[in-house]
Amino acid sequence: MYRAPPSRSTNSLRVAIDARYVREKPSGIGAYVHALVDRLPDLAHSDHFLFWAHPLAPRPLSRAANTSAVTIRAGPTAPWPVIWPQCYASFTNVDVFHSPHNTMPRGLPCASVVTVHDVMAIERPDLHLQGLERVVKSVYFRQAIWRALRQATRLVAPSKATADRICMLLPEAAARLTVIWLAPDACFRPPEDLAVAKERAACLSGAESPYLLVIGSNTPSKRHDLAIAAFANAVPRPWRLVLVQSRKARDGLVGLANRLHVADRIVWLDTIAREDLVTLIQAAGGLIQPSIYEGFGLPVLEAMACGCPVVASDIAPLREITASTAVLFPAGDFDALARALRDFVRSSGLRQSLGEQGLSRAQDFSWDHCARETLKVYRDAAARRP
Fold first, then answer.
1. Where are the beta strands (DSSP E) in the chain?
2. Is the terminal CB of the chain with fewer CB neighbours within 10 Å at N or C?
């Protein structure tokens, strides 16, 4: 239910945050926005935070007294709130609007902050979307990202790698750009009892044999086909490959697994509860992240926070996150990934060492730090407003 904001005090800010990625369906951007929703009100008691809420989001988004919410019926990537935002929510007395998912609405009457997670839609549209969605979003999505890069009062990037890509596209954006790392939620941590975690994971995956894990949507940029092909070539029994992704996304991969004669060693899991995902990561022999394009790579960091060793593509965002605590291979190189997996599954010592190093590195990332730095960006954006 919408609660009207209280009357403004002299030095307070009113910040509207598009929180429509917080809903029943988990996502990396959803985790990011949820972290801000949870922390910002307690960091700035004199400020007021108005959340744009998805109809399927849990209610209330926040119980803090300095918050309110308005339900936006359209989804976060729908065109209409981007084209006509003031038809969906009032901007009366709003000082700063934060779009945390790449795009900037038109005609904002206040200071703006946009988190640009990646610029794949501009640099590699062939990897970004497929089918009808690509056709529809080509009309407005790229334009809304360019609008953010050119017009947003302040920009936030989740990694230096993404900030560098933004500055390559638009050098003058550098003066308005801040890098603020994402972080793993507190639930991503080493298991209290590894044996218990492995027992629970065996129930989830259907067997007690060791497995490697792949997480996320099967989009062209993720190259899950490469993970399956390298697994088939280099990883012997009794190892299995567990893929956590929606049933719709796996169609082409199932055919590939059949052609490579490893279908009986691959486990497909639909979107699962957060606690079950944590268990699968904790008990895994390792996580494979074969992406050829990323803005950050949150599953890699979540695995590291659980003490799970990582094999990942050698691309700038993943180098930044892992900082020499993972096995990296040239992006898209089948032979290199196969060699890496062959060595990885043969050496328990290597896996243990990488798990320990990754766990230590993960301590450098904090949602509390992310929220504090984001609040500074809001204040700077409000101060820059003419």
1. 14-18, 48-53, 67-71, 96-99, 111-115, 154-157, 177-179, 211-215, 240-244, 266-269, 286-289, 310-313, 327-329
2. C
